[in-house]
Amino acid sequence: xxxxxxxxxxxxxxxxxxxxxxxxxxxxxxxxxxxxxxxxxxxxxxxxxxxxxxxxxxxxxxxxxxxxxxxxxxxxxxxxxxxxxxxxxxxxxxxxxxxxxxxxxxxxxxxxxxxxxxxxxxxxxxxxxxxxxxxxxxxxxxxxxxxxxxxxxxxxxxxxxxxxxxxxxxxxxxxxxxxxxxxxxxxxxxxxxxxxxxxxxxxxxxxxxxxxxxxxxxxxxxxxxxxxxxxxxxxxxxxxxxxxxxxxxxxxxxxxxxxxxxxxxxxxxxxxxxxxxxxxxxxxxxxxxxxxxxxxxxxxxxxxxxxxxxxxxxxxxxxxxxxxxxxxxxxxxxxxxxxxxxxxxxxxxxxxxxxxxxxxxxxxxxxxxxxxxxxxxxxxxxxxxxxxxxxxxxxxxxxxxxxxxxxxxxxxxxxxxxxxxxxxxxxxxxxxxxxxxxxxxxxxxxxxxxxxxxxxxxx
Length: 459
Ligand SMILES: NC(=O)C1=CN([C@@H]2O[C@H](COP(=O)(O)OP(=O)(O)OC[C@H]3O[C@@H](n4cnc5c(N)ncnc54)[C@H](O)[C@@H]3O)[C@@H](O)[C@H]2O)[C@@H](O)CC1
Ligand SMILES: Nc1ncnc2c1ncn2[C@@H]1O[C@H](COP(=O)(O)OP(=O)(O)O)[C@@H](O)[C@H]1O
Ligand SMILES: [K+]
Hints:
Elements (H helix, E strand, L loop, with lengths): L11 H13 L4 H19 L5 E5 L3 H15 L4 E5 L6 H8 L5 E3 L8 E5 L11 H12 L3 E5 L21 E5 L11 H5 L1 E5 L9 E3 L19 E5 L4 H13 L4 E5 L11 E3 L11 E6 L10 H9 L4 E3 L1 H5 L3 H7 L3 E3 L3 H8 L6 H12 L2 E4 L4 E4 L5 E4 L11 H14 L4 H19 L5 H13 L2
Parallel strand pairs: 1-2, 1-4, 2-3, 4-5, 5-6, 6-7, 8-17, 9-10, 9-12, 10-11, 12-13, 13-14, 14-15
Antiparallel strand pairs: 15-16, 16-17
Bound molecules: ligand NAX, adenosine-5'-diphosphate and potassium ion (K).
Catalytic activity: (6S)-NADHX + ADP = AMP + phosphate + NADH + H(+); (6R)-NADHX = (6S)-NADHX; (6S)-NADPHX + ADP = AMP + phosphate + NADPH + H(+); (6R)-NADPHX = (6S)-NADPHX
GO molecular function: ADP-dependent NAD(P)H-hydrate dehydratase activity; ATP binding; kinase activity; metal ion binding; NAD(P)HX epimerase activity
Organism: Sphingomonas gellani
């Protein structure tokens, strides 16, 4: 069992392809199922505290994993029972069922146990759970002290994170071989509890990964304010938002932050204030220009936006600026661009569309030629070359005004330090998430901007 950080995220089809490759190299579905079932049993034995176990088995291979796990638990001397939603169908699942020498109860009749193992449906779920399954599943999860899902909680769509009908929350989910989008994307991710990847002896790779602690160099003897990273934040109609972004950039470790569009000195005095002159963005030392927080959506703000787009400096575009643009206009810019839309801004810029958040973010990155940070209770970062990074598990207290402005500043700081755009976006998201985790509850965006320094100190 290992934590998710930095691990590949694969779809059901990618997982099947990896499984197929393992089979071509001499393994078999039955051998994989045997491996998975035993590994699940071992974890359940370890975390179950010796309590009795009820394994719920479906008709597919997820159910097959369940029968193998039940047999292994029994062999280990654990009191275990099995209940099934319907008989096994595939060859491997039928063989796994045959390896279980105990009774098989119906879901309706099964009494709860202290540990519940949900092996009803995995990546093969293709519709909402029937009531005859959903109701007993809920009753048995509620009656258990500990509930463990095999691969994904039954009822969630592994590739999209959609929840098909009411699904009870599990305490632990054992992701088989690799994380699936549902382990990170909402609303499914909240139902997974603690997710751990279980090695199943299948090699998986993917161009999508779970966010991980970034590599972000600390200042050294050669550092000075300009080579630490210089960030220019363009101020608009609502000065507070740009201030938050600028403060965040400073506390994320930028060496020099300038607020363009203001000239009167005021605290914090470390923040340099200058007017947005025609040549303000020409300074080659500027490593990132941040525009959008509090910019205003009126026609009058098109001018500074045009100036930023025309500059050859790396650009972070957020908030109102996203409302004044089209994907084509961004694509035409060339150069490095990072967009940080929340769901409303995303829909306005790229259209509502269907598909998973991961698919939509990737499509948006391709269309705009920019790295797209699609924010929300889960955040998907996508690059035009197809790579993607998923961040789940956010502190819900982030849902307060101004936290997005803070994120923009943090990304600006990372970008200005010379990181490639995808890495910079991920570093900013990680720092923001870590600062929020440390702050706990009911913090405000001003505090979040300052708290970035504590997260930065960990790197
Ligand atoms: N890919 C891999 O490398 C491995 C996968 N294994 C397991 O196989 C699982 C996938 O197995 P399957 O493809 O058989 O899929 P599932 O076991 O998730 O279920 C598929 C079956 O359930 C039916 N079904 C789908 N939704 C339903 C619903 N709402 N109500 C009633 N029936 C429904 C389908 O028609 C199909 O017959 C994985 O999640 C994992 O647990 C392991 O056994 C072995 C290794
Ligand atoms: N449960 C949640 N709901 C909304 N936003 C969340 C949640 N959890 C984390 N966040 C994060 O909080 C930030 C909100 O940004 P945004 O909506 O742009 O706010 P603002 O425009 O007020 O700064 C984003 O980084 C988002 O990913
Ligand atoms: K399951």
